[in-house]
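subagent[fold] <- orchestrator: predict structure for attached chain, return tokens only, no commentary.
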Amino acid sequence: MIDGSKIRTSNGVPANLKNQEANKAAMAKNMEFRKPWSEFESWLAANCPELEGVLNAGATAEQLQAAESELGFKLPDDFKAFYSIHDGQVEDSAGLFDGFELLSLSGILLEHKRLTDFLANQGKERLDAGVTADTGVFPVYWKTSWIPFIRNDCGNYYCVDLGPTSEGVSGQIVGMWLMPPARSLLGRSIGDWFQRYVVRVLDGAYEFSEDEDGLIEIED
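subagent[fold] -> orchestrator:
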């Protein structure tokens, strides 16, 4: 039997100790999301019976690793913690986030490939024309380092940006709007974006709309 305490990584740390530290860090990240997810789900149960049962069970570590392999990018720890609680929502169910659908990992892979293929077929120069962007975000139609995790039927997405400009932060959340073609910064991380969204929901800023088929912000 191999003694893990005697196997060392490139920086000299025993492999088993490094794995233990990584597992502790992953558990800590997971706990950060449990409270806002629990509060959000409790609010949905009390206020939006139309959305009962739309959330999938959490993704496994193996499923997340497989997604990373297919995408070709290492996903941020907080993204993996977020998806370890719920692997998106039931496909084509009412939108949980501003009327948008939270994609499952399989949905993410499908949309990422579709957008990448569309860019290759239509041409980057043509699609990039006229796109505006907030500071820290590239003013382009699409980058393969953008991971689409929320979408609506109009071609708009929320993406985890793994390739920001020098003024941005890897893991920031970008809104990808079709018309007008703009790229906006929605949060510094998925945790930052999600927790602020839940606070707004709990403060009474959202309601379920049958017309929009989802949870939307109440207009003043």
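orchestrator: received. Logging for downstream: The mean pLDDT is 90. Residues 15-47 form the longest helix (33 residues).
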